[in-house]
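So, could you explain this one?
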Amino acid sequence: MLEQLQIDNLALIDHLEISFTAGLNVLSGETGAGKSILIKAIDLLLGEKAGAEMIRREAEEGQVTALFSLPEPYAGLPGLPAAVEAPAGQLLVRRTLPRNGRSRVWINGQVSSLALLGNCVRPLISISNQHATQALMNPVRHLEFLDRYAGLSEQSARLQRQFLGLERILRERKAMQERGRQREELAALWQFQAEEIRQARLTAGEEADLRQKREVLRQAERIHEKVRQVQEILTESDASLSTLLARAAEVLRQAAQLDPALAPQVRELKDLAIPLQETGLTLRHYLSGLVLDSRVLEEMEDRLQLIQRLSAKYGADTAAMLDYLADLECRLEDREEDNQKLKQLEQSVDEERRRCFALSEELSRKRREAARKLSGLLEGELRGLGLADCQFEVVFQPQQPGPGTDPDLVYGEQVLTAEGLEKAEFFLAPNPGEGLRPLARIASGGELSRILLVLMGALSREGSVETVIFDEVDAGVGGGLGEKVGRKLQALARDRQVICITHLPQIAVYAAGHFQVLKKTKGPRTLTDIRLLTEEERVQELARMLSGSQTSASTIALAREFLQKARGAPR
């Protein structure tokens, strides 16, 4: 439960410390005294956004601190790291709001995040105020109320995750199908282009090699003539270098017979003859391979024209065209892989649809069971709040497919949605013979307050919330009905801590702790203060609530009588 709340520099509050008790806590005070600041402060601990306008004008920073005692045994708070777990069954949270800058959060003395703060505090406390009434008036929120009552919130969240997963797979399949259609349109072109390149049997660097060979063929006769001239100079005439070198070697050999010192030079001349002979042989081989046929040149020209024609379509040179061919082959292979992936996705879609439907069907069955129990509970509780003949029913309406409904979200003639197979709306018949009609259309403010009181009580009993705060629960309620609401709050407070902001003394008399909210002037400033009333102060406050700002001996006596009667009322 909420043991202590400290508020600093928020709105009209300078510094305020409140120690709440177990059971029913009531806050009362004149209109405009600042009772709503308490709700705003707790909203901040629930992770709500805050503007700089909430900070007191003279201050640079506002702050809210709360101490919660955790029930025993307690499994722990969702997402709370072990390093900040409360060893003594307590949770201390603090949030500061700088005028300039982001808010800061501490959980049990450890710096934390705003999201984790909300996750820690939300399971411990709930607020029923004007926003909750508006939610009750909104049929879209009725499934949420029902799921909370039935303890189906996690199962509902699991269905939402399953449905979002189904939608993701459907989007993925649609994108792959679209990509597949585009590829199918291009597949014939890719096949033709790949086959055209393959038939050309290109090799890297082939075009440059062909151009060089073509130039050789064009000059083949001139080359042949010049090579023949070189052959004659080297080896094939009486005046060739080879003949002259042999003569020189013979003359020098004869001289070496006269002087052996010339023998090395004779060998050198003979060695010179070997390269000349080898070169001659090489040139003869070259000439034997030199093509002089014009038909070969024509074939080469045709080959170059083919390469140039392909180059205009597929790449600057043969290497680029071969790269393009490899890319085409990859695309065609990817097309086959995508077809396989698409088949797998189709199977996944079928499986996800079955899972989604199974979860939806199970959730639907549990919701209908819970709806019957909730209807009986509310009708029974409302009888004690002045609605003796009231009828309440949760009406389910199957989700209907529309013109834009995705056929893949229709399963067995039922529409799959993130919320389930049906919508739910609360129907009410406050008086006999009226017939059940939508709650949002016919319920008065007082009826809504009572329904919300009973519903929030049911939700708190079913859940783990230890503290329930009611703001404006007395809207449209007065007289003897206020007394019934007070008793209902007192009964609810047996299992939960209840904090109620009220203007009705018939409710306030049932409080275990009565706090007064008041404005006071301190110098040039107006401040809000909240204090726990003593027994006599409580009588005075009840008298004020009965008669307004002016009290009399009779209203004080009546207030004392109200208080004694409430204490003697059966619990």
